[in-house]
Amino acid sequence: MRWLDIQEIAIRLEEMYPDADNVNLRFTDLRTWVTSLPEFHDAPDGCNEKILEAIQMAWIDERS
User: Fold this and answer.
1) Within 13 Å of residue 51, how many CA atoms lie on the same side as its CB?
2) Is residue 16 in some structural domain?
3) What is the pLDDT of residue 52?
4) pLDDT (0 to 100) of residue 15
5) What's the rounded Cα separation, in Å, for the pair 39 and 57?
6) Is 1 a domain residue?
7) Domain limits at 46?
8) Is the Cβ–Cβ distance between 37 and 8 less than 8 Å?
9) Taking a C-beta distance cutoff of 8 angstroms, is the pair 1, 12 a contact?
10) pLDDT at 12
């Protein structure tokens, strides 16, 4: 999984953190959670705010 696998990341985050407040989260926490996923194999610093926001939105959609 890489940073641009946004939907796949959102699905895994929902599986790993089903009780997390994915609406009011800090991007620093989101980045840490993504990079700690066992399937994630990309540069930890290879994202930006736009990518993190897209992951957050996909995660919110996944939960609804």
Assistant:
1) 15
2) yes
3) 98
4) 96
5) 20
6) no
7) 6-63
8) no
9) yes
10) 98
Q: 24: domain CATH number?
A: 1.10.10.600
Residue 24 CA to residue 35 CA, distance in Å, equals 19
SS3 of 15-35: the string is: HHCCCCCCCCCCHHHHHHHHH
Distance CA 64, CA 43 (A): 30
Residue 25 lies in a domain: yes
- Domains identified in the chain, total number: 1
Query: Tokens standing for 38?
Result: 């066992």
pLDDT number for residue 10 = 98
- 23, 5, 4: which is closest to 63 by C-alpha? 23
Residue 11 lies in a domain: yes
pLDDT at 60: 97
In which band, very low, low, confident or very high, does the pLDDT at 9 lie, cut at 50, 70 and 90?
very high
Mean pLDDT of all residues in 55-62: 97
